Amino acid sequence: MTINVRVPQLPESVADATLVAWHKKPGETVVRDENLVDLETDKVVLEVPAPAAGVLTEIKWGDGTTVTSGQVLAVIEEGAGAAASAPPQEAVRPAGEAVRDGKLSPAAKRVAEENHLDPKSLSGSGRDGRVSKADVVNYLSGKAAPAAVSNQAAPPAARAPAPGVVAPVPFVPTSSARGARADQRVPMTRLRARIAERMVQAQATQALLTSFNEVDLTAVNELRGRYKEQFEKQNGVKLGFMSFFTKACVEALKKFPNVNASVEGNDIVYHEYFDIGVAVSTERGLIVPIVRDADGLSFADIEKSVANFAARARAGSITIEELTGGTFTITNGGVFGSLLSTPIVNSPQSAILGMHKIQDRPVVVDGQIVVRPMMYIALTYDHRIIDGREAVQFLVTVKQCLEDPARMVLGV
Asked: What is the DSSP string of 184-210?
């Protein structure tokens, strides 16, 4: 029995997807629910499983093709006996032969294909030897020869030196000192293009402004130090900073609902729930999974959600539904060493909180100079609906909750 493998139904917000990489060739046997091909959308990479066991007899479209919901991708001849009658490997229709190596990321495969590289010649810097796009680009840069100088225009004639002055000999660095001067043109992934579009859209449609404050994290560090072992033993997850910041932001959002609102046309939509987006950096780009109803979650629930999102995001298994919505976002540039930044609002939200690096600094407490673990925090907000006074008071509320965590328990 012949069975068509089709593009799964895509969400309303996603018009099409790009075929990233086939994991099977025509003539190979497949088992039910085995991943046949990866499809990349604006937000996530989707896996297309085999609908039945049998032999993959035909691949309709090659890597790099744009496809839509319901489109036929391949044909499977169902049944164990189909292997004997399977036709030889067939040519894939519009794109060339794909690099097929399980250790190459989708972006790395695309660059390797475009440059006709053998995946066996590539070494990876990622976990378990996984090859990233940067590894492929670095490999290509190492192979590129220095630019030829024979066709360069001759330099203008040097001015004759003054009488009695010996002109110095021009210094020309060796080719090894100059290094390779190669350029690599690589198309944006769909996710990177979508990120670029959203960021430009936010800058063009919102009146963005950023306010800053600083937080003394002594009290949070003391709580984490006192209970971290018991917390991890009881909940199976480490007690990090994100749960404290999420809880502090929820308290501030309750006091300043405009920060939790969004603009739709000439209307302001006030959200009476707290769905907090947590920015996660992956090899493919920055994504923002949503912690739903964060006001009703415990510290342990928040830490488990964030840890789970981070692991699944890097594995490419986050669903589109988990990235959709959100009323407010928190991003932590401090994990990369950022001391201060102005984050961009995740439209259509109206504000985003930026966390930064914790750094011991001298501060004045009760008239005495002491060293405390300090962090700068930033709030970028849409000035169309959020006044500067509200933004500053929002940051002050976050600061108070973190410097005196009992406020989050008592709700004061």
From this structure: ---PPPHHHHHHHHHHHHHHHHS-EEE
Give the integer Cα–Cα distance in Å for 193 and 196.
Answer: 5
Q: In whole angstroms, give the CA distance from residue 342 to residue 356.
A: 11
**pTM recorded for the entire structure:** 0.64
| Domains of the chain, residue spans | 2-85, 106-142, 208-410
What residues are paired with 403 via a beta bridge?
none
Nearest C-alpha neighbor of 230 from the set 311, 299, 310, 308: 299
19 three-class SS: strand
Architecture of domain 208-410: 2-Layer Sandwich (3.30)
Catalytic residues: 383, 387
User: Which amino acid is located at 345 in the chain?
Assistant: V
CATH class of 106-142: few secondary structures
pLDDT in tens, 297-330: 999 999 999 999 988 888 878 888 888 889 999 9
Cα→Cα distances 45→129, 190, 193, Å: 21, 10, 14
Alpha helix segments (H runs only) across 185-298: 190-205, 218-235, 242-255
